Every structure is written in structure tokens, then in C-alpha cells.
Amino acid sequence: MTAAEIADAVRAGRVRATAIAQAALARIESRNPALNAFTDVLRDRALREAGAVDRAVAAGRDPGPLAGVPYGVKNLYDVAGLPTRAGSLINRDRPAAPCDAVLVQRMVQAGAVLLGSQNMDEYAYGFTTENAHDGTTRNPHDEARVAGGSSGGSAAAVAAGLCSFSLGSDTNGSIRVPASFCGIFGLKPTYGRLPRSHTFPFVFDLDHLGPFAATATDLALVYDALQGPDPTDPACANRAIAPTVPHISSLPSGLRIGVLHGWFRDMAQEEACTALDEAAAALGPVSAVILPGAEQARAAAFLITAAQGANLHFAALRDRAEDFDPATRDRLLAGALLPAQAVQQAQRVRRWFAEQVAEVFTCFDILLAPATPCPATLIGQQTIFLRGIELPARPSLGVLTQPLSCIGLPVAAVPLRRPGALPFGIQVIAPPWQELRALQVAAWLERAGVAGARIAA
What we know:
By secondary structure, the chain is of the alpha+beta class. The chain has one domain (3-447): Amidase signature (AS) domain (Amidase signature (AS) enzymes). 38% of the residues lie in helices and 16% in strands. It has 16 helices and 17 strands. The chain has helices at residues 3-11, 17-35, 43-58, 102-109, 152-159, 176-182, 216-226, 263-266, 270-282, 294-312, 314-319, 326-336, 340-360, 393-396, 402-406, 435-447, and strands at 38-41, 70-74, 113-118, 130-131, 135-136, 138-139, 142-146, 165-170, 185-188, 208-213, 257-260, 287-289, 366-370, 383-386, 389-392, 411-415, 425-429. Helix 4 (102-109) links the parallel strand 2 (70-74) and strand 3. Helix 2 runs antiparallel to helix 3 (43-58), helix 7 packs antiparallel against helix 16 and helix 10 crosses helix 12. It is globular and about 60 Å long.
């Protein structure tokens, strides 16, 4: 069942939340050893939360829009009683979190049932979830391949049917890359739409939180339950709730849709461009669009990420360098050596690029682009070819997502139906604060049979 179907059945008393939780826990026990999606399974908490939902139903109370729906969270979310490891060895020495992250608290209020925490790249600095401390998360559709990252465990868990939805984070593409590789839906909301309170940060200027799900409706349902301001996150202190579920069943007429060319086509393999063109054709008339400065924006995102990440971890780099994943450590050390002039110029480029894109959105309502330059790479693969050039694989998997994160645009990752081929997704990009538009297009593509999640048996 979908998340929406589970919640309806639980609220109507046709199935008990406890039974749903037990089935999910059994599936995790069976499949997680091979996939390594969950790092912490919270059996007692899950059964306790499910029991509370069942008691509410028995008493005639509505337990919430996600009643009894099982989910997981990337292990940079605070979960009461667990140290927030953020994929690292160093953080395991931290005290257990005294309370849940704000978004987890909202899931409790919505009646969802937390199954546990999920694997990620160390400190969210990666696109593959090949974690030196917790091991690699494997792609449910081909266990020889990566699940993407840095929210790889969260995406793989949904794609394997271990949970109905999950919560991840996206700084440079960490929701959209694993959603594409694992064949599920994901949403990176506008920067500042969802509070990051009580999660372990990476880059304050670029960090977003958002959900994964198996249908566009489930994605909207979870997103709506997550919304609301929170004064402890300055970026989200005054954000109003903008419901999407009542409005995603139809596509507005006259929607002006552009397909991104230039950087977004040059840096994608032919297979990715062909899949995007097929999806775009289903939407009707579209136009080719160039985002001026996309390559420069990606470079700016690289510099801002490295500099702010290094600043955050500077003390640990000095005192516990040997306890980092070497790949993470070396990138953070490079960030610590960046001159202030380079970082300041990156921020100028970021602002300039935002202005260029705002001008494009005066002519278009939605933009489309590949989510990744290729389908999932092999575990341990070091390079990929783009534009006929051999490039390092791990940083290059986010080449199409980073420019959009840099300016905080809302983006839905939409999995395309590709029978017999590896999963692949596209980005449905909307203007700031217009998540509804992206979700409407995602839902329409799903109804038209062009898009759809692939859940591994």
C-alpha cells in the first residue's frame, strides 16, 4: 500500500498500525543486511508509536494524516536517545540527542511511525553513500551499484519497500541524486521552507531538508505534514504553510515549460538526454532554455560548500583528523585553505545567478533537466565520461543538481518509467516558494504513465 492508503486504512480501522510496523520491521530484518540502508533500527519506539496510533483510533480520535505509516530518517536528524552520528565516527562520541528534530516531532504529530535512522555519506559530503565507517548502501535494483548520496540510505529504504517514506537532506543534490538512482520521488523544497532545527548541519547557506516517497501524492502528503515555521531556524522563522495535496490532482492549463539545454545537456550522457526528451514530449509544447552562468554557479557551490564545511569541522580537523573518512577530510582541508577572496567571489556569483534565473522564470513556469548525468554507477567506480572527458565520479554525480541548490530553488525529483533499464530521474524545477507547481507536474507525469517509482521485490 502507498502511504496514503495505509493512513486511510488505519484511520478506518481496517488494519492496525502495529501490524504495519511489525511487517516493516520484519522486512528490514530480512533485507537490510544486504542493502545497509538503516544504521539504527528502533523496534521498541516503532511499536510504541504504532500502539499509540491504534489506541487513538480505538478511542475515536484521528491520529493524523500519516496514521501508522512507517518511515525512516537520515542519521543527521536528531532522534531522542541516539547520538546524531551524521555518518561519522567522531559524532558517535556525542551524547544522545535529548529530543527529536523538529521535522521528526511533526511526523509524530501526524501519526507516522519511526522505524530508525538511515545511512549517509560522512557529514553529508558525497553523492554515493560509500561510508568508511558504516559501510556502503547498495542500490536495491542492482546491489553492485551505489544508491546515490548523501541520503543514500533513505532513498534505498523506500526503493526496497523497507519504509513508505523517508526524510533526507539536500545541500548540493543529496535528495535528487539518490532519488534518481533508486527510482523514487524526492522533493528539495525552497531554501528556508522546512526548518532544519535539531539536525546536524553541513552548509548553512545551502542545506535543505525534504522527503522521499514512492508516489507523487505520498510526497505531497508528507511535505504538507512537515510544513510550518520554526523560530530556531532563522531561515524558516516566518514561513506560512502552503498546502499542496488538495491541488496536485490536475495540471494548470497553459503551463509554460522549458527544457534546460547548455550545461544541463552538455554534462549529461546521451541516455539521460533521451529520457528527459521523452518525458518532456508527454507534457506538450516545450521550449529549449539556457540558464546563463550554470557552470559558474556550480563552481560557486563547490567553493561555498568547502569553505563553510571546513569552518564547521575546523576543530575536529585539527584534533581528530585521523577519524575522518580520508576523502571527506581531504576536501574539508582544502576548504580550510581557500582564500577569502575566492569565497566572497563565489557568493557574488551565487547572487548574480539567482538574478539570471529569476529573469528566466518571467517567461517559464517550470523547467526540466536530468537529475543525474547517468544512471547509478558501480560501487567503487572512480570515473565517468561526460562531454568525452573522463571525470572523477563522486563529485560529478551532482553536476546537474548543484547549480539549482546554490540558489535554493524548489525541485521535485521524478523517476521515469524505463522497463528493463536502470532507474533514472528528472528534475522538475519551479520558482521559489512554488513547490505546488513542481508537485503538480510530477503527479501529472505519474498519471500519464511516464513516471513512476520502481520498488524492488
